[in-house]
Amino acid sequence: MAVLPMRRISIYGLKSQRKGVLELLQRRGAVEVIQExxxxxxxxTMDTQAARNQFAATQATAxxxxxxxxxxxxxxxxxxxxxxGRRPISLxxxxxSLQRVTEIGxxxxxxxxxxxxxxxxxxxxxxxxxxxxxxxxxxxxxxxMRMKGTRSTSVFIGTFPQAYTREQILExxxxxxxxxxxxxxxxxxxxxxxxxxxxxxxSEESAAVETALRSMGFAWPQNPSKKPPSQRAExxxxxxxxxxxxxxxxxxxxxTYGDRRDDLCFLYDYYAMRIEKYEVLALLRQSRRTFIITGxxxxxxxxxxxxxxxxxxxxxxxxxxxxxxxxxxxxxxxNGFAAPMEPVLEGYSLPKRGEVDPCTPMACFYxxxxxxxxxxxxxxxxxxxxxxxxxLKFKNMESGLKKSLKMFMYxxxxxxxxxxxxxxxxxxxxxxxxxxxxGTEVTIPALWFVPLNEPMRLLVFSFLLGIIHLFAGLGVQxxxxxxxxxxxxxxxxxxxxxxxxxxxxxxxxxxxxxxxMLGLGFTLxxxxxxxxxxxAGIGAVGVLFTAGRESKNPGKRLLKGIYGLYNVSGYLSDxxxxxRLLALGLATGVIASVFNQMGAMVGGGVVGAxxxxxxxxxxxxxxxxxxxxxxxxHTNRLQYVEFFGKFxxxxxxxxxxxxxxxxxxxxxxxxxx
Length: 673
Description:
The protein is an alpha+beta fold.
């Protein structure tokens, strides 16, 4: 439960050592560099946009080369490959690869060029094949399609937009040209919407025949070849074979680069680091011979970094407490139990300056609420064992993913706990299996009670857990106020609400109508009701007269007090929200039981066992997937809305240090302090 205290750091050094200092800071990943306003006329900043654009272009080439290799030289990856994290690379190996950056860049460019050539070949093959297909109807023609005739004859080679027979063409021409004789027609091919023809007539009758043909929709072929169609087709086939041979050669060369994937990954990461370094370089204040780096870093990292900088370079390091008005970045540090809550908290907002880190109180309730919503011991064991195996096997997993898996592992432990209390093991699978296949009914008794049999009992417990959760949120608010020395705010905003809400709840428990409705076996005595009513009254009066204390106008102060008192309905709404614990807990068990009953409908025997196994595996896989998602969403909702609503504002900016934010590799230094 700690927000790391931050220090402001300024590093003054010689420009000749700027590169080394920046690279050291990037490897350490400890300082978030900021841009300071220019106060000194002798200092200026650099425009690094052109260089960054060039680096981004080279990085894009490396990315494209990797995509090409993934297409033509695919590598089989495990479904769990995402858990492996970035591969560690020693500083010595990094420096060794650094010497080959230019050569690796040439390789990336060559791969991209080869892919372009292959795409050109593919497009050319498609173009040639289209031409070849267009020649198919004309293969019966043994002369050039450009033939127009001889001295005494005219030749018409073209198409009609519908199916014609030779007889139909001659009849149509006879009707249109009754005085013209000696027309010879040959139908080369016929399709449903096209007829290819060869027609010969006397030269003096050419104009009349052409007019008649056009009236029938005749059209000359597009781009006719000089050679006869059959010869042209053979020529096209030869060109296609040449392009296919060229394409095969390109593919073979591409495959020779399959073992260069690691180099391309390095190139991509290298330019990612350079882009980030030049982004930081643009923030520095510089003169002709000096530079100044300003930023923030956690106070605990100051001694080690200051020692390394001063021992390695000729620099002066100055650190100081940030000013009151500075928006300092936020970095969290928690133990193994609370750290998994950090990604959940970031999904809402990080604490602003002066707020506490709520991860520890969050964790205490988060795992509890998640497990109660899922509440099946078998599902919990699957989650716990699966996450534990992944965490043990993949040691190099990224920090954020590791925290998320730990969160689900702890939630799985909680789920197992609640499942044992409620007697749910894949729903009622044990009872159904024993009764269906073994003729006897075996049950695993609940250590507490079965929610399906006593839903009201679970509802009351959900409300009780919700009240504790809300009051814990008020407790964190009290702690924040007390830590800041605002004791009056602690009394006005916390103690009065404890008295009002707590007193009201206790008073309700002195009424028989309330206890009977909730199914409670007790009713608090009347003296307790009197005391609780007095406490609630004190709380109500306190809220009424202090909720609007910021206003100097008495009328506004009273109106704000009334509005603040009305917020008691918000507490009622918040408490009712915890009924989702009942809803999701019952949903998990009911759906599991339905799938068990569906699987057992066929009965016993071999066929029944096969059907039951299939339904069991599919049904419970769907059930655990849907309800884990539901439990995750609704647990987050109870944290964000109900719990945080009592003490937390957020709005902090995440600490984003200048570091090697790479995709494939992370630099490992043996002597790293």
